[in-house]
Amino acid sequence: MFNIYQNKKVLVTGHTGFKGSWLISWLRMIGADVVGISLPESIVPSLFSSTSIEDQITDYRIDIRDQKLLKDIILKEKPDFVFHLAAQALVRKSYFDPILTWDTNLMGTVNLLNALRFVDKPCSATIITSDKCYDNVEWVWGYREHDKLGGPDPYSASKGAAELAINSFIKSFFSDEKSNVAICSARAGNVIGGGDWSEDRIIPDCVKAWSADEKVILRNPSSTRPWQHVLEPICGYLRLGSKLYQEKSIHGNAFNFGPNSNDDKSVLDIVKGMSNHWKNVVWDIEEDTSGFYESGLLKLNCDKARSLLGWQAFLDFDTTIKFTAEWYKEFYKGSEMLKVTHKQIEEFITIAGSQNISWAND
Question: What CATH number does residue 248 fall under?
């Protein structure tokens, strides 16, 4: 499975982030030659640092807003695959620093796309944006890939704009059948799993508070999100990159990667689920007085990924919570976290095989 990545050069932007660290851990398990591009880590601890995986990859620490340096690295490394995850990924932070958010999420993506114009070998590029790229009016049904883009907050709007830029570059510079580069975008969000330490995210807030015997404060306990374990979309990205490399017919498409619609849970559901695996659990609810808008409901329709990629979400809520809690418990025990991370990837693949998920049997 995913053997196409073995001994191939795979460039990952944002490789030190939460999703990026899970992705490069999986790629190294496969035997890929991983090149990472990211800013220096600003969060301690982190999944990347806890796994000590930097010795297994080529590790560049640059800002993707540096157009020339980014282009120079891509042309030097000559990747077979690109996964673009680097972003300012927090909605609330986008209100405090909208310029950084727009510059990173839009122009950082444009810089990458522009650099890909000069790649002189076959290359499959998967550009990850967000489920929040949609103009969310809180429908009870899931958004499809052709639905209207946009969003009221700077983060969501910047991701919608990045999707427009991707589409523009594909049609303007990569539409020729002889183009070396094939591009797709991937839309997912609200993932949970071990190793996330970001601010203003419910799982990190819980773990940091409970590990110090403190109370966690819930701002919007009734907000519903399409929660999924981080390995679900990571698997989708790998599936998409592999398919795109082999079948250029999907070039230019966007794909949603989200949980089943009946798996939507509230913030309070997540906290209660985590509390079943943790001692000394206390939480309190306080009204959110920030005045910042955050959507209360967001669903994705993933029929396209299921039909064209053979991908589907399959972990149930209890298993997702169990995986997440166990990773953090091993961290606080001082375990070797790369081994723990690899073990969870192996368990994920085993569960997929037992449920006859198509990609697990490829």
Answer: 3.40.50.720
